[in-house]
Description:
The chain has 393 residues and is an alpha/beta fold. It folds into two domains: 9-180 and 367-383, Rossmann fold, CATH 3.40.50.2000; 190-363, Glycogen Phosphorylase B (Rossmann fold), CATH 3.40.50. It has 14 helices and 13 strands. The chain has helices spanning 28-42, 76-94, 122-125, 132-148, 157-167, 190-199, 219-232, 252-260, 275-284, 299-306, 319-323, 335-347, 349-363, 368-383; strands at 9-13, 47-53, 65-68, 98-101, 114-118, 151-154, 174-176, 206-210, 240-244, 267-271, 287-290, 311-314, 328-330. The strands form two sheets. The chain has a seven-stranded parallel beta sheet, with helices on both faces. A six-stranded parallel beta sheet has the order 10-9-8-11-12-13, with helices on both faces.
Amino acid sequence: MxxxxxxxxxxxxxxxxxxAASYRSAGVSGYIRRLLAYLPEVAPDLRFTAFVPxxxxxxxxxxxxxxxxxxxxxxxxxxxxxxxxxxxxxTRRLGLDLLHGPVSITPVLxxxxxxxxxxxxTFLAYPEAFPAAKRLYLRSQVGRSARAARRVIASSxxxxxxxxxxxxxxxxxxxxxxxxxxxxxxxxxxxxVEAFRRRRGLPxxxxxxxxxxxxRKNLVRLVEAFARLRQRCPDLADVRLxxxxxxxxxxxxxxxxxxxxxxxxxVLFPGYVPDEELAWWxxxxxxxxxxxxxxxxxxxxxxxxxxxxxxxxSALSSMPEVAGDAALLVDPTDVDAxxxxxxxxxxxxxxxxALRSRALVQAQRFPWRRAIAQTAAVYRQVLGLPPAEGEDA
Length: 393
């Protein structure tokens, strides 16, 4: 049953939606897309308006959309101006009861109570990754938005701790809502996986990493661990390392490490993997390695687990929350430990079977529908509404 005209009205700042075939269509854009897809189902007692860029976003949602025309909000400066100047005017004109900023920032003069989602504080941990102007904007606005919000949603307990410690937000105003995994991330029959592997020219056995090439992904150490693995076990000479993802920043040392270690034929860089193919890459991999130094959630780990993958990941940040006991957790700064984990994940058949079995159980703990239902529960708390049926008070 749709919400009544007098139901509380919630606005969603969805300006970071993207349909581009690049990293822009993943990450926070994917999160916003799931918000718009599931909110009508999990919160029929609320009204919504989503503020979206103009153009074909390939959206499937019954939510009312306010398209921003004539501003080219894909350009960051113009988007910021619209968010800070025009969005509050629409907030007041529409009589919004609540505004959700799904990506770290809300307007200074929002015109109504706000909720903000913070996925990570990378701009504080790795400030060199951001141009000076963007770094200054994030430093000035993310903390302010978090402290001004009635409730902060953090995508992991690790991020929640960072929000409390670094941004000085009282812990009682921070709610952890883990992200989810899409239903297309499932195992597939072996013959279909093999057909995909042949179609893409992928090796019979390979270690896969998916993610933007940048320093916090810890790829230089992964390349070094792969080299040590090959040295220790000549029987693994046919195994390749596949580093899939677009070039971010500071990726030069990764390519330099490959050349220095004589691995130019053994480390493959296929570039950005389209969303519609991503599950097949996880399925085709012998091992998925994700030794990141910092993640707000670590969605690729969850996606690989949902595909029944054998996963080696970091024991730092949010990764243990996502992986549970379904992956090998290692100190990502210890190259020898990383090499040992890769070796075990490749040659220990009993371990591989156990990890695959636990992977599917772990992935089932993170459905997108529940994540968005928990987000709607935060809206109700801020609005002073009773919990929905079956929702914890």
